[in-house]
What does this fold into?
Amino acid sequence: MKPTFKGTSFSITRRRFLQSAGTTSTVIWLPGMAYAQALEDVQEKLTGVSKWDLDTPALCVDLDHMEHNFSRIRTTTDRNGIGFRPHAKTHKTPAIAELQIADGALGICTAKVGEAAAMIEHGIKKVLMTTCNVTTHKISLAMELCKRSDQFIQAVFQESNARDLSAAAQEAGVIADVVVDVDPGGHRTGIAPGKPALELAQLVDRLPGLRQRGLLCYDGRVQHEINASVRRSQSVQAMEPAADTLEKMRLSGLNTEIFSGGGTGTYNIDHEIPGFTDVQCGSYLFMDMQYLANESLSGDDSYTDFKPSLTVLTTVVNTHIDGMATTDAGQKSLTIHKPDPKVLGESGVSYRTWGDEFGRITYDEPTRTYQVGDKLEVIVPHCDPVVNLYDVMFATRNNRVEHVWPISARGDAQ
It folds into this structure.
């Protein structure tokens, strides 16, 4: 089933940057109260406009490639008997979350309560927040989200936090759904597997105002392990204690309907973990240079499972020096992450950011050279933080704009 793309109405209150229609590449700055109407106008005007007429730097997503990636994750998880619950921290865009759920996702994940609020505000109700809310403000906001959506779930991995959530839920008059976050061994977040996790789950089950739903366990260390066989063995090994914990929870009579974790690097491995229910794939829909460095389980030297759909469009601004060119996409457009960006569709050229505002192309037996005003696309180093730099995303097909999507959760780091 191919997802259906449709326009969505958004209400956004802060100042935004928009690219106007036409070939003049005119830039419009708009006050927040006018943004929603202006966005609707620009969406209409930009439909059918060539991607190459956009002002730069511009964040673009190729819909054909993204649909291919949708299909790959859906068919693979279906075949392996698990679900998928994509991580919206990657795209921060309610319109994409809506498409993912329509395509069969169990819901979406968010990393921060601000992201969850942005999604729920725009009608995305099935949200699993994979980190914990520990401050009074965040807990209060989480309880408000429980009122807005009875499908909002949050994580916990400390007894004191569970008691705080219970007290806040009772005060707010809601039932807060909770999963226990289990540490896979990286010690970033999560409670130790086995008895500590079991006792915390039992406490959550007893506390008024809380509803125990299962557990989550995410091992970010293995997602970018380049060697495919090592990635497979390390992932399964790291998740075994969480699987044992889930079984202990089941035997004690607790709800074990959710065992969520994994990611784009292990989407075709996670089903080997006993009791595993759904993969928290995020980067699969866009891809980036970090994931492309992985080997595929099929034996390919690069991660060919998914197609790079996300690019930054940039313009050449200087060609005075032989053997190189300067562009207008630097660290403020592409971040400082490694590996370096890659020019799409060309060989014999390398790209790196050259300070905040500029990028540098270096020639080495290139398939083409560039002149001032030429435009090119680069695959980004790491998609999540790059998306967070932009207000809107241009969704294109056959190099023409179909949608202008507001990145509504941009900057929601709290």
About this structure: Residues 1-33 have pLDDT under 50 and may be disordered. Residues 175 and 190 are 22 Å apart (CA to CA). The longest helix spans residues 228-251. The domain at 16-63+305-406 is CATH 2.40.37.20 (Lyase, Ornithine Decarboxylase; Chain A, domain 1).
